[in-house]
From TrEMBL:
SUPFAM superfamilies: Composite domain of metallo-dependent hydrolases, Metallo-dependent hydrolases. Keywords: Hydrolase. It comes from the Bacteria. It comes from Caballeronia temeraria. InterPro entries: Amidohydro-rel, Metal-dep_hydrolase_composite, Metal_Hydrolase, MTA/SAH_deaminase. Residues 67-419 form the Amidohydrolase-related domain. One of its GO terms (molecular function) is hydrolase activity, acting on carbon-nitrogen (but not peptide) bonds. This is Chrolohydrolase. Transmembrane segments: none annotated. The keyword Hydrolase applies.
Amino acid sequence: MKNASLTPARLQDDELLLLPAYVLLADGPQRDHAVVVSNGTFSAVGPADEVIARHPHLTPVALPDKLVMPGFVDAHHHLTQSFGKALAFGEPSEIYRRIWVPLENCLDENLVYLSAKLAALEALRGGFTTVCDAGTRASGDASTIAAATQEAGVRCVLGLICNDLADDIDAPARAAIVVRAQQHLARWEGHALVHPSLAVSVPEAGSDGMLQTAAALCADAGAVFQTHANEHLAAVERSIVRRKMRPIEHLHYAGALGPQTLIAHATLVTPSELNLLAGTGAAVSYNPVASSWKGNAVAPALQMAALGIRFGLGTDGTRSDAFRLIDAAETAQRFAFGLASGDSSCGGGELWLDRALRGGADALRLDTRIGEIAPGKAADFLLVDLDVPEMRPSWDLTWELVRLANRSQIDAVFVAGKLRLWQGWPTDWDARAFLREVDDVAREVVARAPIQRVHSAPRVHEAVHDAAHDAASGAILPTV
């Protein structure tokens, strides 16, 4: 019987004893289990009768037909690109040169804040409780992004770009980048929701010394060093021409591959590069939607799993919908590799769900804090409605979450034990008014940014389509 009395207010107590139909644990969905949330963490998880008996002071919250599961982890995002995400549709690869860099260079502090908060809201609505931001090219301080993500309520790995190969960089300027990097790591050390990270956009944007230094600083701080590598054929070929090495080989040569390293994409990888990733303990963000929308290839994630290469799943700022992401992760492997080899499983539902949860937490070096429902871990979790036609009848809940579940089933999103969204919307701030504000400013900044799209605007496409249709039907076309 459904719990008609369940309201947001009932889920905002400092301590909660939850009794759902299922709890998704590391070894799979479990029935007849209870979860206690206290002081922002999971304080107890186990068989319902035992947990209730140990907490007589708590009134259980019955959640029939609900699943309590960990929040998803987005291992690769660009929070300050949210104003232009639809501008990338139908564009060839390396769109960062024509769209993202021009757009981000036009963002002032307020626009950075609004863009990041919009992305954070979208992530929470899609079931992500943690996002890893790769760093922005916008001017200003990363604290603006941190403020936006904290206000939205999402956990953020906050990247700071340390590129040092611009034309005007000299030794003092390079030293200043290192000082700024050290300050960034120190500023956010131990923060509840913000976890500092350093980044070099692509290996070719950093000197060997900066690559090694940034990676070493992250290793010492327990943080993540991020870079995009082996994503596009053009970049791979530039690296071969300039350095006589492929990008991941270049990172290894520079001393920047290690357990602290997170490689975004890694789609165009050779067997020797896979061995480098496995041997150094580096992690990868497998971004299947990015491959579909704007990439040159699909990362061999199944082979990575077989080789023991650590990897999580990332959106790359494409579409912040976690259930669609895990479906895309399995589907991309099936199309790219499984069909040709007769692999009808392609890792099974367990692999993709695990990589979107614990795998992402591990790739971000946050596995001691997030990624699963276990005592002592941060209470970042979702309340998912299973009482929907898509999930009936249920035979294998893990596979069904990968292939059948959708964002509309997420009733509630919690980060650090606090209710952040109820049925898709914040409970403590006016998101709809915020969206109206975003509409007003986004049009203006996109209009003045020197964005170069290869494909024409929709109205031009429609005119071309109409002209082609008229030609095919024998109509006489007007002279332009």
